[in-house]
Specification:
By secondary structure, the chain is mostly beta strands. It has 2 helices and 19 strands. The two termini are 39 Å apart.
Length: 408
C-alpha cells in the first residue's frame, strides 16, 4: 500500500474515532471481538475476462476486530479490517486492502441520532466484482454498486459512504427528521470513462407515523448532487420518497420504498449533455431473524451514483439465507443479480451490464472459537454492447479464529 493510501486510512480512522468518542462519552462498557483467518482459493477466471481467461491460486490473510462501545443512551460498533492478497503466479495482484465499518446511535429523551459508515481501499479487480454476501455490520449498505465492471490491473479504489440521520419525536406515534448521505469514490489512476472520481451528496426531510403495532409509514422530499472529479459532469436531482413497513411477527418485517425524482444533467465535456429526466425507483425488502435461521430478500430498482460519470438505474434481486444445523455447523447461501442501465445522467452507455453472482459456504466450529470453512462462488457478467459474457468459478478453504462476542 502506498504512503498516500496509508495516510488516507489513518485520516478516515481518525475521523471515525472522533465521531465515536463524541457520541459515546461516558461509555459504560467496551468489548472486543477479534476475527482472523487464513484462506486459499482457486479462481478459473481471475479478471472475469470473456476472452483471456486467467486461472490462479490465491492466498489471503484476513484480520478484523469488532469494537463495541455501549452506554445507557448509545451503542457503537466499529470494525477495522485488513486483508492481504497474495498470488504467486500473477504479477501486480499482491495487495493490502483496508476496510472500516461504523454503526452508531445516540438517544435523548425525544431525539435520536444514528449513523452508518463504510470505507474501503481495494484493488480494482476486487472492487469491480461485488459480492452477494451482505455486510455483517451494516447490512443496509452495499446493496447497490458504484462500479462499472471495467477492470484496470494495478488500479486501486478508495470508497467512503456516510449516512447520518437525526429524528425528533413529535408525539408517541409520530416524528420528523433529516437524513443525509455522502459518498466519495476515487481511483488511482482514474480515467474519463469507467473509473471516474466523484462526490455525491443527498439530503432528505421526512415525516414518520406509526399507524398501529404492525404498520408504519414515512413520507419525505429530498435533493441530491453528483459532481465528477475526472470529467466536467454535474447532476442535480430533487424528488419525493414514500416508505412503508409492516411487522408480520416479532422476527419477520417487510418494507417498501417508492421514489420519483427530476434529474438535471450538465456535462460540457467530454460529451456535451444538457438533459432532464424523470427516473423512478422502488424497493421491496423482507428480513427474518429466527433463533437458528435467518434470511433477507430484496427486489427493486435504485438510482445511484456511478464511476461511469453520472447516475445509473440498477434493477436488482438479492437474497441471503443463514442456518445453524447444529451448535458447530453453519450454512450460508447468497444470490445477487443486477442490471445497470444509463439514465440521462449516464455518460458511458457501453458500461451498461448484467451481473450475477452466488456463494455457498459451510463452516464448522472445531472449538468454541476456532473454525474451518469451505465455499464456492460463481460469477457471470455481460455488457449490453458486448457479444459475449464472462464467467468465473471460485473455490476456497479457510481456517480461522473468531473471538467470543459481547457477553450480555
Amino acid at each position: 500500500m502506498s504512503s498516500l493510501s496509508l495516510r488516507r486510512v489513518r485520516d478516515v480512522a481518525a475521523t471515525v474515532a472522533a465521531l465515536v468518542v463524541g457520541t459515546t462519552a461516558g461509555a459504560a462498557e467496551i468489548y472486543y471481538q477479534p476475527i482472523v483467518s487464513l484462506q486459499t482459493t482457486y479462481n478459473n477466471n481471475l479478471d472475469l475476462d470473456p476472452l483471456h481467461k486467467q486461472g490462479a491460486e490465491g492466498y489471503f490473510a484476513d484480520a478484523a476486530t469488532n469494537i463495541g462501545i455501549a452506554t445507557p443512551r448509545s451503542e457503537t460498533l466499529l470494525q477495522p479490517r485488513l486483508l492481504y492478497n497474495y498470488y504467486p503466479s500473477v504479477q501486480g495482484r499482491n495487495r493490502l486492502e483496508g476496510f472500516l465499518n461504523l454503526n452508531t446511535h445516540y438517544t435523548w429523551e425525544r431525539d435520536r441520532f444514528s449513523m452508518s459508515g463504510f470505507y474501503d481501499h481495494r484493488d480494482d479487480v476486487n472492487a469491480e466484482q461485488p459480492s452477494a454476501v451482505q455486510n455483517t455490520v451494516n447490512p443496509d449498505l452495499g446493496n447497490t454498486t458504484t462500479t462499472t465492471g471495467r477492470v484496470q490491473v494495478g488500479t486501486t479504489r478508495d470508497y467512503v459512504v456516510l449516512t447520518p440521520t437525526f429524528t425528533h419525536t413529535l408525539t408517541p406515534l409520530s416524528s420528523i427528521g433529516v437524513a443525509t448521505e455522502y459518498q466519495r469514490a476515487s481511483f488511482s489512476p482514474s480515467d474519463t470513462s469507467s473509473h471516474v472520481d466523484f462526490n455525491y451528496y443527498m439530503g432528505r426531510l421526512f415525516y414518520s407515523k406509526t399507524i398501529d403495532l404492525r404498520t408504519d409509514v414515512s413520507v419525505g422530499a429530498y435533493g441530491s448532487r453528483y459532481d465528477s472529479g475526472s470529467i466536467d459532469s454535474h447532476t442535480t436531482s430533487g424528488g419525493v420518497q414514500l416508505n412503508g413497513g409492516y411487522n408480520w411477527s416479532e422476527v419477520l418485517r417487510s418494507t417498501l420504498t417508492v421514489q420519483w425524482q427530476r434529474t438535471k444533467v450538465e456535462e460540457p465535456s467530454p460529451h456535451f449533455i444538457d438533459a432532464t429526466a424523470d427516473p423512478w425507483a422502488a424497493n421491496f425488502n423482507t428480513v427474518y431473524k429466527g433463533q437458528i435461521s435467518s434470511y433477507a430478500f430484496s427486489i427493486g430498482r435504485t438510482i445511484y451514483p456511478s464511476s461511469a460519470g453520472g447516475l445509473y438505474t440498477t434493477d436488482q434481486v438479492r437474497g441471503q439465507y443463514d442456518r445453524d444445523f447444529s451448535q458447530r455447523l453453519h450454512f450460508m447461501g447468497a444470490l445477487r443479480y443486477f442490471r445497470d442501465r444509463t439514465t440521462a445522467a449516464g455518460t458511458s452507455g457501453n458500461n451498461s451490464r448484467n451481473y450475477a453472482t452466488g456463494t455457498v459456504r459451510l463452516q464448522y466450529m472445531l472449538t468454541q472459537t476456532v473454525f474451518v470453512a469451505g465455499a464456492y462462488s460463481h460469477t457471470y457478467q455481460k455488457y449490453n454492447f458486448d457479444p459475449s459474457g464472462a464467467q468465473a468459478d471460485l473455490i476456497s478453504l479457510s481456517f480461522g479464529y473468531r473471538g467470543l462476542g459481547r457477553q450480555r
